[in-house]
Amino acid sequence: MTKRQSAHARAPSQSQSGDWLSDCDVLSLRRRLLAWYRAHRRDLPWRRTRDPYAIWVSEIMLQQTRVDTVVPYYERFLAAFPTVGALADASSDEVMRAWAGLGYYRRARMMHEGARQLRDEAGGAVPTTRDELRAVRGIGPYTAGAIASIAFGEAVGLVDGNVARVLSRLFAIDLDMKGTGARVAAEIADALVAPRAPGDFNQALMELGATVCTPRGPACDACPVADVCRARAEGRVDALPRVAPRAAPRGLAMRALVAMSAEAVVLGRRRATLRFGGMWEPPCIEGEGEAPWPTWLTIARDVALVRHVLTHRRLEVTVDASQGRASALERACVALATSLGDTYDAVRAVRTDALDSVGLSTLAKKVLAAARPRA
Asked: Is the distance from CB of 80 to CB of 55 less than 8 angstroms?
């Protein structure tokens, strides 16, 4: 073993990550995880490229979203915006339309902002190191580590939910993974990463957490490092990772107006700083107050109740509906833009055969479907 290899194999000092790695054969762990990953990894489209932009897109989409959901969105998004410059030059509406239905829309807005930052400051070039990537809007520690290690071979670790679960069990980290445990896991990830294949090693940890070391019913018999897993040895696999319980989603009452003619419907684009920012929807208000719908519209009240659950909110939307002429819709757009200007930066009548041309959230689609006259 060379001096360089020996230095990489030593456990970090007490000041970095305590004695978590004191009994760990780091080189053996790296070899076994890399061999397992190369034999068992899933064939996913973002694993067929080292393009940092494509990896960036995939990592943002994969946050809190299932792989099978992401694949078609990823392919369509890259077809529409194949480079940083193409994404930067696109309008907000074009980006949000491509993202519509994927949820967590702030991800798309921030990635769009980051692309524009790189276009304006770096000619569209993606930074090559984790520290430089952290300076790009919308790129957090995990995404920076993923891009730097996978695209550029920088020997830095990363911790997402899958990696946190693997490390917490492998080293029996009995600390809250939303607090101190997350910092310990990040230090261990940096200490473990394979310097000659950091991208593959990081993806091995992610793949192990996604397919073997799962939240419920981990397949320990299929794990390449089960024999050195401390949680398994201590009979605590099901007790780790330790995560403070998430608060139940809070209820929020809303009211929406679906104002339509035979050919169009009134939609508003939510301001970027709000929930569903940048997406189009039938005008909505929050709370139980009086709805500021134009008094001259003929409105059918309470035609439907739509429920929609987000991570932190349980939305209950009471739907009102109005059927009128196109001229009435244009007048309604002006009135609603004035009364709801704090919520929407644009209000307009959109042809019903062109709804696919604007970004509609899943909730907006539910509201529109609930208001359609029944045959």
From this structure: no
Task: Count how many Cα atoms sit within 13 Å of the Cα of residue 3 in the half-sphere of its side chain.
Answer: 0
Confidence check: pLDDT of 127 > 90: yes
**Phi and psi torsions of 17, nearest 5°:** -145, 35
Clarify whether 288 is annotated catalytic: no
In the set 59, 94, 154, 281, the catalytic residue is 59
Cβ count within 10 A of residue 137: 14
CA distance 345 to 67: 33
What residues pair up with 317 in beta bridges, in sequence order?
Answer: 254, 306
Q: In this predicted structure, what is the pLDDT of residue 374? A: 59
Q: Please return the burial class of 104, using the count of CB atoms within 10 Å of its CB with bins 0-12, 13-18 and 19+.
A: middle
Could you tell me the pLDDT band of residue 251, with boundaries at 50, 70 and 90? very high
Are 227 and 312 in contact, with CB atoms under 8 Å apart? no
Q: How far apart are CA 305 and CA 33, in angstroms?
A: 50
pLDDT cut 90: percent of the chain above it = 87
Q: Which token pair is 98?
A: 């491509």
Whether the predicted model's global pTM rises above the 0.90 cut: no
Per-residue model confidence (pLDDT) at position 82: 98
Q: What share of the chain is helix, strand, coil (3-state, %, to 5)?
A: 50, 15, 35
Residue 301, φ and ψ in degrees, nearest 5: -85, 145
| Identity of the amino acid at 88 | A
Mean pLDDT, all residues of the chain? 92
CA distance 367 to 157: 43
Report the chain's terminal Cα–Cα distance, integer Å: 77
Task: Please report the sign of the dihedral spanned by the C-alpha atoms of residue 344, residue 348, residue 353, residue 358.
Answer: negative
3-state DSSP assignment of residue 248: coil
CA distance linking residue 77 with residue 30, whole number of Å: 34
